Amino acid sequence: MVKASAPGKCILFGEHAVVYGEPALACSINQRMTIELEHEHMIEAWRLDGRKFNPKKHPHIEYIRNKLHSSTGNPLHIRIRGTIPKASGLGSSAALSVALCGALQQLHNGSANKAQASLLAHHAEAAAQGGRASPMDTATSSYGGFIVLSDTIEEHLDFIETRTMDVDGSTRQWHLHTFEAAVPEGTALVVGNTGTHGSTSAMVNHVAELMRKNSSRKVELETIGAIARRGIQAFREGDMEAVGQAMTENHIVLRSLGVSSPELERLIRAAAPSSLGVKMTGAGGGGCMIALTTNPEETMGAIEMEGGRAFISTFNEPGLRIEDAV
Ligand code: MEV
To answer: Are 266 and 192 within 8 A, CB to CB?
Structure first.
């Protein structure tokens, strides 16, 4: 039996603007997905949580299985456990893909490789989403901690790798970085889930349409990029007041782009008085918001009073991890 886990993520700065080449920052959260692989006697076909595995329903699992487990290998029983809410912008499917890569690597090679898991899980996500996926979710889930994605190599950050992928006939390139953040003890993130689901492609298309109709609105995307750079610098310096302020500013620009929702705004308004900064996270139109706070219990209570589901996350949650291998 092999057991591997990987964390979800939230975007701290730069969603939507990252699609146009601006930098974005994501961090791992302490909600994880866990994959258990078991060889079972007498099973002739792959199983998923006690049922026959259906590759059509789980294209990313199918992709990874084909890459890491030869067709002549014995069928396995895959069990999925996890605390990351689905389809809420917290990277649950990327975490599942990364954990599965790690578990299969452990089974076949005796150890897990984060760089390979990050690459393969990215390709699996892209294949499952019709060719489009940024490496943000899968890299954050594999490496853990802070990940900066940008179209240029960002000075002052620790460069990890350059990723290229063919998307719609042209080659897309991303530079991945990380950095050490000096987060003071007692500062936490509270994630608030509206329970509603926005469509990432609808939100991305909405922003594209705005830009097409009025190209002067590109300034808003550049503003998000500038805020993201300032927020990243503040994180590195441990200036949480400045981080919080940048988060709130980032949210105001996202709201003006029309990607927030009444439910997100309600939770954000509730969390703001007890927080250093608040914003939606991910594509928007629903999903989750985040608050940077030194009063996590109070902030969580305020979000729940407004009907949101909330949890507290600390920073620097480790990435891909082997939990058990016997
Ligand atoms: C979605 O989590 C983040 C977006 O920036 C889309 C993307 O980066 O592919 C909205």
So the answer is: no
